[in-house]
Amino acid sequence: MDLVLFGIQGSGKGTQAKRLAEEFGYEIFEAGGELRKIAASGTELGATVKSYIDTGKLVPFEIIMKVVEEAIAARSKDQKLLFDGIPRDLDQMKSFDQILQKTGRTIVAIHLKLDPEEGVRRILGRAKIQGRADDANEEVIRRRMNTFVEKTIPVIQSYESRGVVTEVDGMKGVDEVFSEMKRVVAAK
Ligand code: AMP
Question: How confident is the model at residue 132 (pLDDT cuts 50, 70, 90)?
């Protein structure tokens, strides 16, 4: 069974993804990370992708879904995947569901919940360490947060109605959050 992690920027999703992957043997598919690799490739596609990332807007549907579809096709069915940053809106969700169905994969999801203002504070702190341009600009951060609230929350609600998502409080400390997430995954 695959795992989908949802969480507003700064929720600690990336950190927890790494720990869960190690604990349970998932391979991580990080949508933002894959897109940042393309943005750095020096191609025309890379320049397009970079323009979206730098302004904090979602990269067009066709581009991201092709990346996801190819990544899934390249993995053995036995390799459990942890999806971080996908699906981010209802169109992506529909397409993602179809890809999963076609490839015989099933998912459970966790929503790592965090107060958005705490997210902004954490990201501005992270920008100083990781040097990501889209983390250093508060306006861009807030645009990404708004996109999460407007577009990704409806995806989480849809998963809730299917009973596949569990909420975990991201305001707690890293280790406490990890213990709780571990419990959720182990119970599935
Ligand atoms: P993240 O690392 O998850 O904060 O994502 C960084 C940026 O990558 C986002 O602001 C978007 O521009 C882009 N991105 C990441 N995931 C997606 C996605 N599923 N769909 C479209 N754009 C995405």
Answer: confident
